Amino acid sequence: AGHAVIATSGSSGKCSFLNHTMRDRVRKTRHFKYSSGWPFTQADGDHTYFWLGPSAGRTSAVEAFLANAENWGRPGEVFALSDEPLLISEISELAAFRTRMANGTATPDEIAAVEQRAQAKRERMEVDLAKFTEKILEYRDRPIFLSGMWSQHLMIIERARELGVGDGEFHPQSVIGAGGGVKGVVLPPDYKEQVALFYGDVVRPAVYGMTELAQPLPRCEAGRYHAAPGLVMLPLDESGER
């Protein structure tokens, strides 16, 4: 009936489900067109697009991939790390497990089973990302749009080093997005500096966003985040009251 659902990542211990219409999706795609590279560059539909995540699922990350692919991607040159849908049932199950871990009700057998599944998934992802990295590196002499999480970029750097690729070999019109927080992954203190050095003189836009916000807030060259048109701000005092 023209409605969909966007689910949060469950970092609070459970997934929230937000109403999302097809008109919302159109507005979000239009907003991404002008904000995803702002103020340094603008979507041109002529970049090879690489997304370090799944191509399907009911999350804001997948929606961002679809919007950026439409705005930036050259026809026939849009690539995702996986075409396996991101299932909300799996996200919700993991969120509930984190809650049980926090309150001490998770059983030893449950913890062992979750750790085993997580390890198997990490190993599979490492193999997939290593192969995906080789494809990314093939296009490094032309403009690309690459988006993923900080830990994934460090894995790309590690694989690139194994293949003899040095720092600063990417086309200067490439757009490299890194974010999403570290999500509990232990990273070296200089992980941001390592990523910046490896990609070199490329376009490095930054945004603040979360599922509940719907539209990202792009950061300008002065380091300030700018609210999207139509976003209603509700300033709070120190007590949290409006």
Overall description:
With 242 residues, the protein is of the alpha/beta class. 40% of the residues lie in helices and 18% in strands. It has 6 helices and 8 strands. The strands form 3 sheets. The protein has a 4-stranded parallel beta sheet, with helices on both faces. Strands 1-2 form a two-stranded antiparallel ribbon. A two-stranded antiparallel sheet has the order 7-8. Helix 5 packs across helix 6. 23% of the residues are buried.
Mean pLDDT: 88
* Cα-based radius of gyration, to the nearest Å: 19 Å
Distance between the termini: 35 Å
The proportion of strand residues reads: 15-25%
How can the largest sheet be summarized? 4 strands, parallel
Instruction: Name the structural class.
Output: alpha/beta
The order of strands across the largest sheet is: 4-3-5-6
Low-confidence stretches: none
Net shape: globular
Record field, number of beta strands: 8
Helix/strand order, N-terminal first: EEHEHEHHEHEHEE
Features:
8 strands; two-stranded antiparallel sheet; 6 helices; four-stranded parallel beta sheet; 242 residues; alpha/beta
Summarize the structure.
With 242 residues, the chain is of the alpha/beta class. It contains six helices and eight strands. Helix 5 (150-162) links the parallel strand 5 (144-149) and strand 6.
